[in-house]
Task: structure prediction
Amino acid sequence: MVEITRSFEIEVELIDNDHRRLVEIINEITQAIDDDQPEECARLVPDFVAFTKRHFAREEALLEKNGYPQVDKHRRHHASLDDKMKTMEALALNVVDSPAARDTLRKELVFFLMDDVINEDMDFKNFLVNATSKGNETTDE
Amino acid sequence: MQGLHMVGIHHAYGAAKILNNISLTVPAGELVCLLGPSGCGKTTLLRIAAGLEQLQAGSVTIDEVVIAEGPAQLPPEERRIGYMFQDYALFPHLSVLDNVIFGLFRRDRRTARARALVMLDQVGMVPHAEKYPHMLSGGQQQRVALARALAPEPRLVLLDEPFSDLDTNMRARVRQQTLSVLKQNNVATLMVTHDPEEAMFMADRIKVLGDQGRILQSGRPADIYYKPADEYVARLFGPMNMIDGVVEQGGLKSSFGTMALEDSTAAEGSIVRVLIRPEGMILSNGGGDGGAPVDIISAHLLGDTSVVRFKVRNGINSGAEFHMRMSGAFDPTELGQIWARVDLRHAFQYPQNQ
Amino acid sequence: MKAPWLRRRGWLGLNGWTAGTIFIAALATVPIFAVVYLALTPTENIWPHLVSTVLGGYVTTTLILMLGVGLGTLLIGVGTAWLVTMCRFPGRRLFEWGMLLPMAMPAYIIAYVYTDILEFAGPMQAMLREIFGWSSKRDYWFPEIRSLGGAIAMMTLVLYPYVYLLARASFLEQSVGVFEASRSLGRGPWRSFFTVALPLARPGIVIGLSLVLMETLNDYGTVDFFAVNTFSLGIFDVWMNMNNVSGAAQLASVMLLFVAFLVFSERYARRKQRFHNTTSKFQALPGFQLSGGRGLAATFLCLAPVLLGFVLPTLVLLSYAQKHYEPELSGEILGHALNSMKLSVLAGAIAVLVAIIMAYSARIKGGKILLLASRVAAMGYAVPGAVLAVGVMIVLGNLDNGIDAIARENFGFSTGLIFSGTIAAVTFGYLVRFLALSLGTVEASLGKVTPSMDGASRSLGRGAFATMRYVHLPLIKGGVLTAVMLVFVDCMKELPMTVILQPFNFQTLATFVHQYASDEQLGDAALAALSIVGAGVVPVILLSLSIAKSRPGSRPGHEEGV
Result:
């Protein structure tokens, strides 16, 4: 069971909510693997990837709106994660017949979210918290 | 989330910044390996996690409890962390068994002894329980140090170059054993090493630490090996072949012909550096599969593989020396012109002047 | 979730360590500053008088003494070290540690012994007169033992082991590979020695010589007995006979200049020395086999200093002790022995305690200030006992007067002398002089506890004090005991400081022997002298053991297999 605990919070509602949703999906995928439902797992992973991409877009828009100076760097970082998402989709297709794939997928999802996504988001945590507390844009409208 | 979470760690010795905004996550039961050149950065990160080094900036959380943040730092003896030092740091005045019992002082004698023996059994050192550290070989000391670190059932285990002092024969065996024991105990493990092979063998996730104190790449061993983010990471695994190709009509032209260009946005005529692993060069008798004619300089049989050195004859990289690795022996008496081509799976393109 | 018990201080936050170390360093240097201060602001200034009368003599005599002893110890020390490490001849193994024996002998004791033997009325000259039929002094020439030359000879005999030890270590550790390389390039053994081995060993030899010369400056018993006017003697003279503390302080200050030079050269040489693990294994050296006559010559060359410097005097003392045995006197000697031992044990214990405090601050806090403080506190070993004694007297005297003045002013009564002339005074003197010894030993011992052992202990749940108790203490126990023992022995042998600072009606073995010998009653004091030598043998045994341990095949083997 993964959870967004305090040290993983960005303290910006929009982003933390997205992260929590992603965690939910990961937990569903893990549950599917444990319950020996590889088809369910294979269905959920593309959902995860799709949601992640939407989240990236929302996040980049928010950063841009608040004038985050390193928004391009963060965009490039998101782009660099494309490969990993493709890998996870490929793994998902293999969970049907490969226990090793299930194991790797499980680990990769957690590392992907908690390390590649959230830890990198920590870079703009202070900026965004300050910006939003000054009454700036907190949504992506 | 159970495990280790370090966020935004900065560390400097005087004017030299050795850790620059390092963040990492080690979930319980997983092994994350910090790979980097010999120097102070990696070990310092370990020591910060253990509380043996003062945290300068950032935060350290274990099992959802913040143990270091700003000026507030939990002292090492209260962190419940297992630490394995590079020199093992066994206590010379205590026997093997007493070394392992050392951290179990909060339990009663009988339970402590029983637990110590369980750990010694896991590492296969029960017959040596009454010996003293100076009577043991390096591999045996390493195993005792591991047992000692794991005995108190820590929430996190930190390994500092655990195999570097062992000779090559011992290393493979001890490595496998250490990994089994760690997995058996299902504890979050953070390991540092400068040996890429070691990192690949042990880790669920590798984080490459560059000499500027930053993380250059994070991922599975396969990610790091087959998709190195930059030249530095690519070169970690050994000497690489290098050629500079020119972008020409959507392809990358070099002495080996025209290969597929990875970055489609590269400008016409711009230079792209290609790093090729030794196993990424393939020799054949004819030019049918493409590639370039080459002159063989020398061949060295290393056992089950050979290293062959050759020169490229024509094209923009003519005269450049390469080395390739193949399985089996290279037969230099093979008649006819030898050709070499590039296996794109082991070739990595890095546009220059970016 | 933040733990409520997170502390807001760093690793240990103990600033008491720093304060303690600096305080100790200050205490150790106060006597020296006191001497210099009094020298510069004398109460009864006799400096011009000193300069015009005795200063020149003191300088010349001291210089000649140092030169003579330096040369003598250099020749014997380096020569025997070379023979023992590089050549093979009968008895070599024995001489390896045997050469150290004269270290157990304080110079003043063999001075007394040889005077007894070699003076006009002694057995040597008596025998010669009988053999050759001479009857009076004018019939023959015999070297006068009670002279500058005699003093040089005596000190050379007991001080050469310092040079021997360091030269031997240098030859073993530094020059083996290079020496062999030199020989393989065609240079013969002698040339290799002079052009390669000797220069490489130079730093070690310089250190040995500095120590020798510091001890030479320190000597009082021999020069007093032989009436050789060195600075040491001069200080005593001006103090005791002229009753002029300022004058003594001024002479002491000039002596400090000599000392400063010696310390500087020793430090400089240490910096040039390569760092080596002192427990490194003995490397099998290419021993030149010395055959027949040459072998015997080598044996003789090594035997002579040991015989003259230890064996002969010990035998003489043994025969005296037997001849002059008197239960009454022995009872008195036992009393002095107990005094000596009480004093020495006290000084030893405090010296080690202080050393532990200083070693720990360096370990825990580190930093340049603490390092400097340690160095400064340990300076006492270079300062001659007479100088230190003057300094201690000045400090304690002023302290006593100060307290007395306050008491008289505020309470209307005189406190008299509190610290001067007490055991505390002598102990303080011993501490300042021998702190270096205990500090070096304790530091080396603590150094065996690696920082990663500390880290291991902490990560296994033991706090700072628990680590000290369960890890440090067991590991430094041996070193601590050794340090106590070394300080103990040096205190037993000490003479000049004790003579000046000892309380009224209080004698140590050393002062007892000195007094009786000065009265031509060495025989009665022989038992006491032997006790001192006996104590002195203990460190020699320790050193010999460590020499034996550094031979090949003496380390425990390793188990095979993973």
Helices of chain B lie at 41-50, 96-101, 109-122, 138-150, 168-185, 196-202, 221-226, 231-235. The CA atoms of residues 120 and 126 of chain B lie 5 Å apart.
